[in-house]
Design goal:
Layout: E1 3-7, E2 21-25, E3 34-37, H1 43-51, E4 56-61, H2 65-77
Antiparallel strand pairs: 1-4, 2-3, 2-4
Length: 78
């Protein structure tokens, strides 16, 4: 899974979600409704939190910006 959209009341298949992931409200640009989820134990709380800001939630695979910068740094310096 890279991206997954979850609406309130939709069934959620936990096997599709890879960790770590980012759970966020689909509306607005506010970071209050964004949570980094590292395991299944904290997923439900993150979804409920995001749903308090929006009727739809986006779940994305988390990619560290630090790791991406390191890859680019080493790739282009060699």
């Amino acid at each position: 899974m890279t991206n997954f959209r979850f609406a309130s009341g939709d069934p959620l298949t936990l096997g599709e979600i890879q960790y770590p992931c980012v759970v966020k409200a689909s509306l607005g640009e506010d970071t209050k409704a964004v949570r980094l989820v590292k395991n299944q134990a904290t997923l439900h709380a993150a979804i409920e939190h995001a749903l308090s800001y929006s009727d739809d939630v986006i779940i994305e695979r988390y990619k560290s910006a630090f790791v991406n910068r390191l890859v680019c740094l080493f790739k282009y310096r060699i």
